[in-house]
Amino acid sequence: MYRKILMRMRMRMMNATRKVVVGWAKEYKRYLSTTTTNQILLSPPLVSVDLPEIWGSTSTLYHHHPSQSPVSHAKIINGKSIAEEITSRVASNVKRMKESIGKVPGLAVILVGQRRDSLTYVRNKIKACEEAGIKSVVAEFPDSCAEEDIMTSLSKFNEDPSVHGILVQLPLPEHLDEEKILNLVSLEKDVDGFHPINMGNLSMRGREPLFVPCTPKGCLELLLRSGVEIVGKKAVVIGRSNIVGLPIALLLQRHHATVTIVHACTKNPERITCEADIVVTAAGVPSLIRSSWLKPGAVVIDVGTCPVEDPSAEYGYRLVGDVCYEEALSIASAVTPVPGGVEPMTIAMLLCNTLDSAKRLYGFT
Amino acid sequence: MYRKILMRMRMRMMNATRKVVVGWAKEYKRYLSTTTTNQILLSPPLVSVDLPEIWGSTSTLYHHHPSQSPVSHAKIINGKSIAEEITSRVASNVKRMKESIGKVPGLAVILVGQRRDSLTYVRNKIKACEEAGIKSVVAEFPDSCAEEDIMTSLSKFNEDPSVHGILVQLPLPEHLDEEKILNLVSLEKDVDGFHPINMGNLSMRGREPLFVPCTPKGCLELLLRSGVEIVGKKAVVIGRSNIVGLPIALLLQRHHATVTIVHACTKNPERITCEADIVVTAAGVPSLIRSSWLKPGAVVIDVGTCPVEDPSAEYGYRLVGDVCYEEALSIASAVTPVPGGVEPMTIAMLLCNTLDSAKRLYGFT
């Protein structure tokens, strides 16, 4: 009797899931088929990939065909060319916006201090904005500046109708309260997606953040554009920072991967990582990930970029990822290079977020 | 040369980590030793368990002695008695507050419709408030009520200085916008911790939410009070709901477990779960977790409570958890029963959150 009730409940749940899954698949196909040339990203809206939390006792709901056999040479995921394609679509959208409503998106950057890496990042962002036709402005502050000065500048950008995105270049000097400063960024202009409301809405099922942090969004875009199936796959994210590890884990979970976050306290991270179909690594430890960490056929997204001394390189150093690239090439099915993998995508996503913000404000489609 | 630089960097990082870990352990011990009778919870403040994200190449930083050998009979984690102890401490704190500043904490509950389970939950919460000396008020609305009525009532509670905690009993009828309603709850009175800012701050490293959702907080408290080591342990959370699965995963990660969330799309959840040292299950599927899902010596926290028909039971049904209890007893090292495990803790944590809110408002320690 009890068994029968349970069986009936379970059957009902499974049927409900099937219907929803079929419905979702149809919706997704419709979404893809209606993608126009104005559509910049391949990825469906975050919320539309939400499924109800109904459990079935079989594993027949999804059919996966993982390529688990060793491959001789992985596909190289060319972030540079994907980012260029996205940037050129942003540029044509900006042009169209300017022609039809006489407005262009605007990005404001707050830069504190003279860190060499921050200066480089900001310079690259500004350059990318120029190329895409996005107006940009940088408010520079000395290392020793008062918190109030930054808050005042931020408030002005919040009020400025020509600014659609505000970016505080991190890290800030230690004497400044990062949380207080980031929380002041208007939710509608938080193109970095670091406001706790955006992060909370990224975490929660059925909610949609106004902006998704740029690097994680770029990683997801690389996966989607490379045709990597995510639903039901085992994903390991290495690193749990607020700006990369955490949000990429949340994004992968939204896309229904089974996600494990590996971090500095994890025992035997190698053993956990080598079971993953998808590895996203943002540990910032050069060449941490050897071939023994990877499952044959895994897809590897390397967010790490550490400068290491190299007298033979142009500037005396070169950038090295978390992954032993050559080793990964021989075992993975797809790998991002460093440089030229994730990092150009970060800027491309920043342009997308800034454009989206302006579009939202003006109701421009 | 390059190797040497790397080695030196790695050594420096490892030394830094050791210092921080030792420092943290000292701080934690000091915290425990200063715990007074007024201290309700054992758990340290969330932020103090934060460690820097520094990677070492060895696994000697933490020493774990997992009890992996099969045990004949698991310890039963008695949530009922732990909850009673916490409730009685809340009551004595409330008494002390009343005597010294003439105020008592107040909880407001919004209840929409006549769902039997919601009515029972609300009745139990109100009863617990009464027993602890916390003032409570319930605003009841019919199933068909207008959203504006709830919003108006909520706004009044937000303004009311005698209300320190506001709780919207979920689920709401389908025609109501849950997100909109929950977002209106004043952050300072969000004792359920479901506001996206609280959830965002729970997700982010270095941030501290004003309130942690009650059931997840209760699960963590059960683990801590049972002396379960969490740092570096493999934890599997089954279910990814906003109110249980997600926040308990975030909490376990804050306590430095390596967390995997298993959900309806996970392939072979049994294989993943049976590697976990700690299993928290909130799938809501009666008896989903058989002994084959559990690693010998695992700690099992069962959040599931499903009513199943049982003519021999007092009300014609009985509550069944996600876990096959008898089977778990023979393989786990500790298990929560259903009922009497997690669910009394949810209410105890609600009382704690409401008391904390009043203490914060009045600066009462």
UniProtKB/TrEMBL annotation, chains A, B:
Q: In which pathway does it act?
A: One-carbon metabolism; tetrahydrofolate interconversion
What are the Tetrahydrofolate dehydrogenase/cyclohydrolase NAD(P)-binding domain coordinates in residue numbering? 213-360
This protein is called what? Answer: Methenyltetrahydrofolate cyclohydrolase
Q: Which InterPro entries match?
A: Aminoacid_DH-like_N_sf (IPR046346), NAD(P)-bd_dom_sf (IPR036291), THF_DH/CycHdrlase (IPR000672), THF_DH/CycHdrlase_cat_dom (IPR020630), THF_DH/CycHdrlase_NAD-bd_dom (IPR020631)
Species of origin: Gossypium mustelinum (Cotton)
* Keywords of the record: Hydrolase, Multifunctional enzyme, NADP, One-carbon metabolism, Oxidoreductase, Photorespiration
Q: Which domain of life is it from?
A: Eukaryota
Give the family per the record: Belongs to the tetrahydrofolate dehydrogenase/cyclohydrolase family.
